[in-house]
Amino acid sequence: MNTIIFRTMAPIIVCIMLVYAVYICLRGHNEPGGGFIGGLIAASSIAILGMANGAEATRRALRVDPLSIAGIGVQIAALSGLASLFTGSPFMTSIWLYLELGETIVPLSTPMAFDIGVFLVVFGTISAIALGLEEGEAG
Amino acid sequence: MIESVTAAGDWVLVLPLALCLLGAALALILRRDRALVLVMSLLVIAAVIACEVVLLLRVYEAGPLSMTMGKWLPPFGISFTADLFGAGFSLTAAVVTLLVLVYYEGDRGSGLDVNFHAMVLLLLAGVTGSFLTGDLFNLYVWFEVMLIASFGLLVLGGRPLQLDAAVKYGFLNFLATSFFLLALGLLYGSLGTLNMADIMRVAPQANMAAMGGIAAILLLAFGMKAAVFPLNGWLPASYHAPPPAISALFAGLLTKVGVFALLKSMVVLLPASRDLLEPVLVALAMATLLIAPLGAIAETNLRRAIGFLLIGGVGAVLVGIALPSLDGVSGAGLYIFHAMLSMTALYLVAGLIERATGATDTRAMGGLYAASAPLSILFFVLILAVAGVPPLLGFWPKLLLLQASLGQGGWSGGLLAGALVVNAVLTLIAGSRLWAHIFWRAAPDGAAPAVVGSVAVWTGYGATALLVLLIVAAGLWPNALFEILAKGAPDLLDPSRYVTAVGLAGGVP
Question: Are strands A104-109 and B79-82 parallel, antiparallel or unpaired?
Fold first, then answer.
């Protein structure tokens, strides 16, 4: 897998995939997509980077340990459910905030925060598995 | 949508779960700093215990408490519903987990355990969720959470013995949850709902034959989870493999969730189908009661032998499910409580014995009495408690179960009463045989084993002694337990208060 074509193209592919993953995650509330599939796409981009540059370099590029990213994702998802404690509703009740930015209205909500949490959980765990496997190949 | 305002006090129902999950994630993030993770885990479990004490008192005062997530109407939204049994068991589970964490500090050997605390908290989340949920599919989800966490704990350290155990444990438990999922599909297809309160309402009108078949599959699935006799192969094959603290945690929590799910699905959800399956339940209860202690007598590996004693206890709970009178259900509930405490304590003591002698097989042990009298007393008290000798905790549930079986009057009651008594005698024989081999007879090569005294050892002894003290105290002053049973057991036989709490009362659709 270590051809010069692959190594040159990999960063570009990874960038496109990461942007696409965020897009898929955010459109997921009303259309096909969501945190789970977005996280999978992002994690496969990390796997590609690992194949091209080696697992060690990819870990450095990520800066944060993948399993810690997954942990932060669980925190975000759980806290998004706990937010409804302050509105006198049951656990996981959605809270919406409509931001008016000029012409458009941007809806922000706790389901979105939950989805971002799921994104990070899937991204973190699958990246950790992929990098672990790639390290095993090298060693 | 639900329009009413939810009081902040109702949140004690979901806070234990949310705290466990948040704690598990935090432990994963902080896993490089062992001391910090330990303090954080202990604090999280203490907070969970506080929430569950409030929950228990509240359910005791005001009846079952329910919360349906996200303001959706009950049969569609996922309900969490705590009755007294569920609240009590989840509190017991949290207390047991706290003591095991303290014990583990004195027990851990090498540093291969960076993820131990995260997985224990995840396991506690799964167990708490299973006890508090009011939705069958949600129960399946918590079973999976529990399975993942226990699988991780089982292979922690990665010795070949553990991997071998994990394969057997993992395969048979996956099979059990697959059967559970199969039954859920059939149940949803025939009733159109998986909310427990809703099932209680609509199941009596459904096709009797279909319900009977579904109940049989549920019996198979939960029977595997609970290690009922012919389906118990995975338990003795896996519980002796991980470090003793982890075996103790499994023994206290996992099979109890399975048997509680069996109690709930048979007695509360599908009582008509339970009547249909009663001969099967009687046969399973008798087989488990009689054969498991024989396994314990034949076994020479200490923790495998204790595993068979654990399985015998599951048989006692099955007696309560086979005889669902007020006494029977109370006895089953109290036995689950007793087994959660006693079985954990037995495995903890087994861990201390293994450390003191350096062996896992009773044939290589001996003469420990001279080296450590306190250890022999702890083990002996626990054997008496498990066998059901008064006035220890194990006596009261067996008394209730005997009352239920003799009060029932039929042939099955008489058989079950006989099996209970024979089981107590066999358990006593197996236990005292173990005690004699480990403590009484001379050490194999004449030399008394050395016990190392250090701070680490004292945390292990302290946690175990505290648990045994709890068992003795609960046996001597069982009044509070009986008051809880007197309020909790009628709700299992007549679920109207439960259905009202979820908000589904008012006629059949």
Answer: unpaired
